[in-house]
């Protein structure tokens, strides 16, 4: 089933789409007896991933029989793990992850991603690149008809060392494909730039439709002062998209 981005359901239907996608992703991929280290990402859809895994842990099938560790990608996912009664670990303790679930800002037809709209891109990429299986869960608006930068037009998030932000900003703006680039601001909640969990700044850079995300990622990483980009290349194995009518579209690598 193909849905247009303009077919935005009301908020209740949208939340239900996220929940259905997250529950099915967990049901079809998570095995508490086999997956002992589980990555839990950030975002509104992953709320339901943590809820579902918490339900499994509390079920008679798993209760008291197995124990798995959940690795967060930031403060929000840490709180999700704790609030759902799951055991919290860290990537420093468990550098090899069995399976990870996370959302995305946009997913293209080859399962390349834009992530980092919530500001957790470095830790999200650390966990997703440390896992044997990375499963994306999202609502249908996040599925690009072809290229990244089509639905998500806020720009590619780029985490930078604060002292280098002016230099990096100038370098990005000088790139031929750059439409605009700005340091992300805290808005009404904070005066000045957003500061990540790693005490860095984020630059949001719009490159229009990205036909070669791999090359763009490599070009950005070469800039002095760039810590990581929100282009997640070749690490998602599967994506679940929930539609407003309750149907699920599954994309495989």
UniProtKB/TrEMBL annotation:
Its EC number is 5.3.1.6. GO terms for cellular component: cytoplasm. GO terms for molecular function: ribose-5-phosphate isomerase activity. It comes from the Eukaryota. The lineage of its organism: Eukaryota, Fungi, Dikarya, Ascomycota, Saccharomycotina. This is Ribose-5-phosphate isomerase. GO terms for biological process: D-ribose metabolic process; pentose-phosphate shunt, non-oxidative branch; pyridoxine biosynthetic process. Pathway: Carbohydrate degradation; pentose phosphate pathway; D-ribose 5-phosphate from D-ribulose 5-phosphate (non-oxidative stage): step 1/1. It catalyses: aldehydo-D-ribose 5-phosphate = D-ribulose 5-phosphate. Belongs to the ribose 5-phosphate isomerase family. InterPro entries: NagB/RpiA_transferase-like, Ribose5P_isomerase_type_A.
